[in-house]
Amino acid sequence: MKNWMKTIVFATNNAHKLEEVRAIVPEGMRVVSLPEIGCHDEIPETASTLEGNALQKARYVKEHFGYDCFADDTGLEVEALGGEPGVRSARYAGDGHDSDANMEKLLRALDGEQNRKARFRTVIALIINGQELFFEGTVNGRIITEKRGKTGFGYDPVFMPDGVDETFAELGADIKNKISHRAIAAGRLSGWLARYAETAATGGSQDSSSI
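RE: above sequence
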């Protein structure tokens, strides 16, 4: 196997997410963040779907900086609310990205509702060698009636995944990061990149049929 290395951008400013992904990508893949390539732009997220937002971010990096790239977007989809807040999850209560305000609005919207089913969904869009690919991770669960737990972020204190009696905020980062929607999507991305790296290192090629 020849010495092979490829740099790919993860379109994020979140150092925690960056380290999580770096820990699972295969040998031969060097993952860098937006600041590391000199990107300090406010990348638009104006699509109407998670897939659209993730791809919009990845395309922005590719078009403006030239790097192959992947980007993610995550939404909480509540069955009784027709899939809301969905793509608007971070801005559900306004543009301030206020997690407490978002949770309070969600709990008010579900006040008295018996159907509390919900799911977290993460979509990763990857642009590499002219291909555009998607990797998805989903965790089903329900919205409880009050906030519980001190860890995590976003809607974690009100989301209880199926099969456990604790919210994401009570489970703690170590357990959550093994079972979360983002971990599932990132694992699928890592599997594809591992096959890509192995093929590239031996002089072959990888296509979308290998997903």
